[in-house]
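Researcher: Quick test of sequence recovery. Tokens follow.
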């Protein structure tokens, strides 16, 4: 194998596929990156079996071939090179010579590629098309609510549901629920899959904040994300997701319209006290046209009021401050609605208009 490429192209490609490379594995070969040079393209692959990331860069390929390179040292070496053309050559003993500007010469030992696992290919049943920047926001605005506790494995994934021309992403962990909805630009058949949260996290870091196309191909046991030069394949979680529509209240007794940033800043100040408490407790008291935010702990007390518009009854309710703040930090609207039923029922965060998002946060029960 012998090829010539630009240093930054190779370094960026390594950084992408490294997201799928495990730091520890019972299969040492998985701690490497598969490098394949063919037809003026170099393809790099990283996988931990559950998620696979492949990306291609343009190169001048003088001799085709493949090798598995140790991920971290390979990435570190290429990253430290100057931004210039580099030449990579592999000998029959899988020693890789890397030359940059004829003055920097590094040799790394690779592994035989034959032991690298075969990459799972998705037999496409359904295809979903939308923009990369939109899907990235959908992930970022819901993934914080995915469960990390393995006692209910199905909740460690996000529900991705296509229904009636819209795509919905839902995450929940037993304490809160996060839902984002977007219209699809093209027809897609109704489908429902559960994608591991870890895979979506890595995908969102690779997606561009641009109006580029993303194709999601759904298979029986895997899902494939086509980003153009980068391909990501993830296994799907098997099982039935929570019937989330049944747990979102459709009616309310108190609706509060509030400036999101004022509420966020108030909660952040209150959480300075509440973080000393086991459940990070803050109290919200809806009284006429004011929302009082209170937090008490051994180190001190915070009390402040912010203006609101109220529809319905006054209410006093308590929450884990972190759960509410997680929502405030991802919602971008200037004003939001908070819907309440009782002080032991969940709070629902909605937009003033439409149904682009919905967040449910369970309260903390107050003891008299």
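Model:
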């Amino acid at each position: 194998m012998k090829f010539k490429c630009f240093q930054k192209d190779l370094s960026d490609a390594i950084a992408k596929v490294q997201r799928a490379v495990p730091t520890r594995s019972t299969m040492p070969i998985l701690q490497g990156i598969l490098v394949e040079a063919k037809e003026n393209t170099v393809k790099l692959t990283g996988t931990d079996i559950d998620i696979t990331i492949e990306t291609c860069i343009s190169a001048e390929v003088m001799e085709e071939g493949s090798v598995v390179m140790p991920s971290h040292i390979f990435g570190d070496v290429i990253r430290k090179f100057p931004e210039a053309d580099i030449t990579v050559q592999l000998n029959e003993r899988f020693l890789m010579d890397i030359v940059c500007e004829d003055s920097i010469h590094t040799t790394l030992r690779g592994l035989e590629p034959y032991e690298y696992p075969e990459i799972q290919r998705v037999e496409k049943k359904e295809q979903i098309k939308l923009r990369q920047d939109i899907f990235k926001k959908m992930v970022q605005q819901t993934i914080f609510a995915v469960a990390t506790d393995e006692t209910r494995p199905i909740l460690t994934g996000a529900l991705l549901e296509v229904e009636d021309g819209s795509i919905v992403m839902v995450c929940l962990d037993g304490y809160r629920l996060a839902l984002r909805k977007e219209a699809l630009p093209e027809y897609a058949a109704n489908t429902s899959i559960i994608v591991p949260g870890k895979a979506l996290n890595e995908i969102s870091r690779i997606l561009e904040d641009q109006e580029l196309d993303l194709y999601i191909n759904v298979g029986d046991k895997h899902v494939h994300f086509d980003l153009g030069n980068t391909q990501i394949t993830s296994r799907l979680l098997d099982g039935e997701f929570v019937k989330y529509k049944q747990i979102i209240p459709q009616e309310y007794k108190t609706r509060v319209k509030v400036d999101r940033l004022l509420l966020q800043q108030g909660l952040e100040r209150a959480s300075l006290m509440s973080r000393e408490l086991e459940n990070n407790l803050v109290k919200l008291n809806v009284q006429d046209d004011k929302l009082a935010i209170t937090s008490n702990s051994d180190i001190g007390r915070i009390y402040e009021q912010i203006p609101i518009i109220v529809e319905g009854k006054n209410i006093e309710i308590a929450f884990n401050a972190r759960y509410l703040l997680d929502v405030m930090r991802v919602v971008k609207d200037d004003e939001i609605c908070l819907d309440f039923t009782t002080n032991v029922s969940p709070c629902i965060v909605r937009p003033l208009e439409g149904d682009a998002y919905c967040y449910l946060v369970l309260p903390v029960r107050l003891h008299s």
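The chain has a mean pLDDT of 94.
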